[in-house]
């Protein structure tokens, strides 16, 4: 058995709990000063002060790791990304800088549909190799679990290819990958006006194959004006749930359509974006236990107003923050950027942002019982920061503070 003992962490941030934290609970990240963690193989077996754990064990049996002067905390869970895709859309970014909008580019045939052809043309191997590079970059930022979506094929073959690429990466890369089927990501010109038929095809042809090969745990849809309306989205999500998929939804991003309310009605695990969520929708998500996943780097890149994170927390919601890494609206997986935007523009405290990136992110991918906190029984997914306090995270603005990443008990980045 491999035994490791981390001791003398200036701040051991436990984020303890097996469930999402709501409202005020988000401010408590369970800091232990001069903290210590015991690891046996891939699991945490104890946390406490260095003094407490020193008394419990024979240090000779352990590889001892000194964490003095450092924060030790759970690996980040990036619970919303589209990291498997072909091609890039740098041209769209420069058009937007000149005043074009995301929706007008989409209406001209750009946007998500512009990523479809290069993704269809890429081989599975090419998607795996590009994905591996992106996962390496995530690991450097301390991300140890990531959610990834299909949605750039919009035909059966390519959707399955994207999901298979992620499955292969999950088996061969240190970062754990939670896979989501997002066939209804956009409406290709040939399906305009026939959205319901497109959804039927997803439900009857594509999704049974996804199930058969166990390629995705979640089903997701882009519910938006000029994409999928509430009625069609409700139909799709309800059927997907009957097939055994857990649910996510891209909701109320550009227009207020009632996506937050829909997520609550169908019992989605998370509703994501939510820039325009209504007050009623916020209350319903809280009452239905839907995680509100906020993607502030997308709002930043699109120059949109930020989601009302402060209000959601004050109203008692469980808020997660994720990157939304994708080739169009948000080509970044920078955790320091998310920290800065959460603290500076969404008026969240650093404790709330940490909760949103750890235990609540884990809950958004239904893994809160396995990752997202440091406590006995959890997977040993642990990161070290170069500074002694969590307050350096927003203060040393935009800088990656991650020094070491331990995944399932092994050091995978240093
Ligand atoms: O979450 N909003 C829809 N989907 C993505 C954008 C994907 C793209 O532009 O390629 C999002 O922002
Ligand atoms: Fe997205």
UniProtKB/TrEMBL annotation:
**Record's keyword terms, sorted:** Cytoplasm, Histidine metabolism, Hydrolase, Iron, Metal-binding, Zinc
Q: Which residues bind 4-imidazolone-5-propanoate per the record?
A: 89, 152, 185, 253, 329
Which InterPro entries does its entry note?
Amidohydro-rel, HutI, Metal-dep_hydrolase_composite, Metal_Hydrolase, MQNX/HUTI_composite_N
The record's EC number reads 3.5.2.7
Keyword Metal-binding part of the UniProt annotation:
yes
What EC class is this? hydrolase
What's its catalytic activity?
4-imidazolone-5-propanoate + H2O = N-formimidoyl-L-glutamate
Residue span(s) of domain Amidohydrolase-related: 71-412
Cellular component terms per the entry's GO annotation: cytoplasm
Localization, per the record, is: Cytoplasm
The entry lists its GO molecular-function terms as: imidazolonepropionase activity; iron ion binding; zinc ion binding
Q: Which Pfam families match?
A: Amidohydro_1, HUTI_composite_bact
What region holds the Aminodeoxyfutalosine deaminase/Imidazolonepropionase-like composite domain?
A: 35-53
Residues involved in Zn(2+) binding: 80, 82, 250, 324
Superkingdom in the source lineage? Bacteria
UniProt cofactor(s)? Zn(2+); Fe(3+)
Pathway involvement of the protein, from the record: Amino-acid degradation; L-histidine degradation into L-glutamate; N-formimidoyl-L-glutamate from L-histidine: step 3/3
Binding note for cofactor: Binds 1 zinc or iron ion per subunit.
Kindly give the HAMAP family that the UniProt entry links to this protein: HutI
Provide the function of this protein: Catalyzes the hydrolytic cleavage of the carbon-nitrogen bond in imidazolone-5-propanoate to yield N-formimidoyl-L-glutamate. It is the third step in the universal histidine degradation pathway.
Q: What is this protein called?
A: Imidazolonepropionase
Give the organism, scientific name: Blautia hansenii DSM 20583
Taxonomic path: Bacteria, Bacillati, Bacillota, Clostridia, Lachnospirales
What is this protein's gene name?
Answer: hutI
